[in-house]
């Protein structure tokens, strides 16, 4: 019994003489009994890249069928006369707009790719790329954050409970210092309210955030991806006793976290009254 080659239903006419006299010699070889043509459907080469970004792996979301809207490794088919490395650079530039300084070959894997009824046998060459995106954190400006103190509805209770006045914030601010703040709800073991450290919390926050919030986030993200580096004012965390509050900069914090970058925050310790 012969096994039906995967594309035999869709490839019936000889591409040279047009006769319907094709014989499949194997799953990849067609012969025409009319003109003697031999046609090989060889394995197609494709590159795929695993992008490591700090503690995260970055995936792409497929824009087109097949498998639209599903997660995918960035990459694509190798063009004729192109090396795998060149294909990788081209695909990453086309798909993500990023330049890759160096990629390390990891392994290969067989794959099947169905496109418009034709099933392609593919050899995927998998590469690893380390993201070199970075953010430079500079000292924030407390005077730009008056709204956070006087108007932000979710923070008023904290100030009242700890009896904190604006003058106190101003005088404590310069004694603050930069402190790394990995994705966490704690800083130096102290819980930080309003910092929404988990992905789920962030997604909930984003869903109800105003449009301007998302636009500004997208702008920062665009610059970071395009230039590879970004200078941002450090978010501010206020600490009073055993309670801390994210005072400002949640968007900047999330940008760093979402790219696996550990942000620096400006940690301000307020005296307990
Ligand atoms: Zn023929």
Keywords:
single chain, 273 residues, alpha+beta, Nucleoside Triphosphate Pyrophosphohydrolase, 5-stranded mixed beta sheet, 7 helices, 25% helix, binds zinc ion
Report on the structure:
With 273 residues, the chain is an alpha+beta fold. The chain contains seven helices and 18 strands. It has two domains: 44-130, Alpha-Beta Complex (Nucleoside Triphosphate Pyrophosphohydrolase), CATH 3.90.79; 134-270, no CATH class. It has helices at 84-96, 146-150, 156-161, 166-173, 199-208, 211-227, 250-258, and strands at 22-24, 29-32, 38-40, 44-53, 56-58, 60-61, 71-72, 75-77, 104-115, 118-130, 134-138, 177-180, 186-187, 190-193, 229-233, 236-240, 243-248, 264-269. The strands form five sheets. The protein has a six-stranded mixed β-sheet, with helices on one face. A hairpin with a 2-residue loop joins strand 4 (44-53) and strand 5 (56-58). The longest helix has 17 residues, at 211-227. The N and C termini lie far apart (89 Å).
What number is the mean pLDDT? Answer: 90
Question: Could you state the oligomeric state of the chains shown?
Answer: single chain
SS field, number of helical segments:
7
The profile of the biggest β sheet is: 6 strands, mixed
Unreliable segments of 5+ consecutive residues: none
How big is the Rg? 28 Å
Order of helices and strands: EEEEEEEEHEEEHHHEEEHHEEEHE
Number of domains: 2
Strand percent estimate = 25-35%
Q: Span between N and C termini?
A: 89 Å
User: What overall geometry do the principal axes of the alpha carbons give?
Assistant: elongated
Record field, number of beta strands: 18
Largest sheet: spatial strand order: 12-18-16-17-14-13
Structural class: alpha+beta
**Helix percent band:** 10-25%
Q: Give a list of the ligands.
A: zinc ion
